[in-house]
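Private note to self, pasted from the team thread so I don't lose it. C-alpha cells:
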C-alpha cells in the first residue's frame, strides 16, 4: 500500500466535522466506460459539495482506491479543498486491505478531532466495487473489524455494487443496512446523492462521538436498487 499522508487539521476552523472515506474499486474490470463515468461522477461530487456553505468546511473527504494495490489517492481534506482526479484501472480487487486502510484513516482522524477539542459526526465509509475481493483472509479479518466498528457506532457504512458481476453477497457483509446495486453507470446521480447526504449531515445538530447520523433524513436513492 502507498503510505498515506494526512494533512493536519485546520484548527482555525472550529466547526464540527464529518469524515467521509470513499473506497473506489479501480481494478481492471472497471476499464472503459465505468472508470470514465466514475471520474465524471467524482468531479461532480467535488463541485457540488464545495458549494454548500456548511458542508464545504465541515465535511472532510479521503479517497482510498484499490486495484492491484491500495492507495490513498486523497488524504483527508475539507470539501472546499477537493479537486477532481482522473483515476486509472489496474490489477485485482484487494478490498480487505482497502477497508483496513480506510478504518485506520478514520480512527486516526477521530483521534485528531478529540485532541483538538472538535465535535464530530459519525464518520461515513462509502464502498464501491464491481467484483469480488481477491485478498481472502485479509478481507475476512477486515469484515470482522468493520462489523465491530459499526456496532460500536464508530462509522456508518454504505456498500454499492457496480454491474452484474459485483459480489453482492460479500458486499452485504460490510453493513447492517445492506448493499445497493448501481443502476447502469449512474455514477453522476450517485455522487450527487452522496454530496446532498453530506450536506444534510453537515447542516444537522446530531454531532458528538455517539451521534446517530442514521436518523438524519437522507435524499431518496434513485440511482440504485436494493
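Design output:
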Amino acid at each position: 500500500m502507498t503510505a498515506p499522508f494526512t494533512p493536519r487539521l485546520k484548527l482555525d476552523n472550529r466547526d464540527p466535522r464529518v469524515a467521509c472515506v470513499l473506497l473506489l474499486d479501480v481494478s481492471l474490470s472497471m476499464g472503459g466506460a465505468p472508470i470514465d463515468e466514475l471520474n465524471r461522477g467524482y468531479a461532480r461530487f467535488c463541485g457540488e459539495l464545495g458549494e454548500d456553505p456548511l458542508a464545504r468546511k465541515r465535511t472532510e473527504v479521503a479517497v482510498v482506491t484499490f486495484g492491484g494495490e491500495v492507495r490513498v489517492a486523497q488524504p483527508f481534506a475539507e470539501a472546499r479543498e477537493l479537486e477532481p482526479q482522473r483515476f486509472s484501472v489496474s490489477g485485482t480487487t484487494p478490498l480487505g486491505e482497502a477497508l483496513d486502510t480506510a478504518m485506520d484513516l478514520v480512527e486516526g482522524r477521530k483521534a485528531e478531532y478529540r485532541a483538538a477539542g472538535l465535535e464530530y459526526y459519525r464518520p461515513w465509509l462509502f464502498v464501491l466495487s464491481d467484483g469480488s475481493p481477491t485478498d481472502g483472509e485479509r478481507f475476512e479479518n477486515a469484515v470482522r473489524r468493520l462489523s465491530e466498528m459499526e456496532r460500536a457506532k464508530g462509522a456508518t457504512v454504505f456498500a454499492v455494487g457496480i454491474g452484474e458481476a459485483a459480489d453482492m453477497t460479500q458486499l452485504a457483509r460490510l453493513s447492517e443496512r445492506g448493499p445497493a446495486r448501481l443502476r447502469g453507470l449512474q455514477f453522476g446521480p450517485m455522487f450527487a446523492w452522496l454530496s446532498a447526504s453530506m450536506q444534510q449531515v453537515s447542516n444537522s445538530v446530531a454531532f458528538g462521538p455517539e451521534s446517530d447520523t442514521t436518523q438524519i433524513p437522507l435524499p431518496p436513492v434513485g440511482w440504485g436498487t436494493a
